[in-house]
Amino acid sequence: MRNKMDNQSGKERMDKAAKIKLNKLEHLFDQEWEIIPAGGLTGEAFFAKHEEQRLFLKRNSSPFLAALSAEGIVPKLVWTKRLESGDVITAQHWLNGRELSPDEMVDRRVTKLLKKIHTSKPLLTMLERLEKRPVQPEKLLLEVQDGIDLNLLQHPTIQKAIEFLQKKVKFIRYDDYAVCHGDVNHNNWLLSEGNRLYLIDWDRPLIGDPAIDLGMLLYCYIPGNDWEEWLRLYGMELTTHLQLRMKWYVVMQTILSIQWHKDKSRFHEMNRWLTFLHNIL
């Protein structure tokens, strides 16, 4: 595990990188604007404040952000500027609000907003224009197998999970593709002071089976006895095929999460997801 000095040096490097990026942003505003890093792992996001005006700035967001804003999925996009360096800066309304708690994920507004995303033709068209192609389970399986290190491959739960993915991959074909968020964790749901719900953090949108989002949401937040009713409100029947697809994608995403936490030396979280995976299987 990384020691305290390693963690501190990593934080200093991130703070330094954020300051460099901050200096490049400041010429977008006059000196009366206050611009501060918004945190996060990439250092690409900032808050800008001047009197009653507040903006959330991000460097090199996907053009997909404009479509999300038009659909009311994310806070309103105010403007987009291209810098001389070639970087693109987007500004959105900075809303006072909070993320949902795990218990609040049963809220019907979550169901309705996810349904809106999955059935949106404008969002799907925009991703297709950006040359996104539907993700195929066979390709995802190869990525999982190639991305797991040898130590994890020796873990019995990981072995059982990969065996499950290999055995079932040919049975989960589903061609009614939708725009998927890919990380519907409660931290990415923003409830504004005006009681408006948004789904944020669209850095890696994809086209694929809606079960990619549905599985993680149901497995992590909705009691099993309530799945049928939740999906009825969403507009889908809980068939055995959907159950298999959701389980397959949850197992796949959980393996990737376990590897990610291991790479970051976040062993407590790694073990928590290993337990989650064991219980699913």
From TrEMBL:
InterPro entries per UniProt: Aminoglycoside_PTrfase, CcrZ_PhaseVar_Mediator, Kinase-like_dom_sf
Residues of the signal peptide: none
Highest taxon above the source species: Bacteria
SUPFAM superfamilies: Protein kinase-like (PK-like)
Aminoglycoside phosphotransferase domain boundaries: 38-234
Transmembrane segments: none
PANTHER family attached to this UniProt entry: CELL CYCLE REGULATOR CCRZ, PHOSPHOTRANSFERASE YTMP-RELATED
Protein name, as recorded: Aminoglycoside phosphotransferase domain-containing protein
